[in-house]
Specification:
Layout (H helix, E strand, L loop, with lengths): L2 H24 L4 H5 L1 H6 L16 H24 L1
Helix pairs in contact: 1-4
Length: 83
Amino acid sequence: MNLANLTLVAAIVLNLVYLGLAIAAYQHMKPDSRASEASRLLAFTLWWPFYDTYEKSAKPFRILGVAVLLGCVAAYVAWAKAS
């Protein structure tokens, strides 16, 4: 397996982890945010860790989400350079 394939696999795995974190954080939405359709839709956008629609118990998910998002970007940049 060459470097381009390895970085692409890493990026895809990080994307799946990011999706899992979004689902876990969604379980910790504030009740008033959960009632709003727009807030529920924002919970599954790319920028979900940056919205303040979650309870304090979701803070670890949000911090890890930012780190994983940066890792995804780095992996895609590495894949583009290796291709």
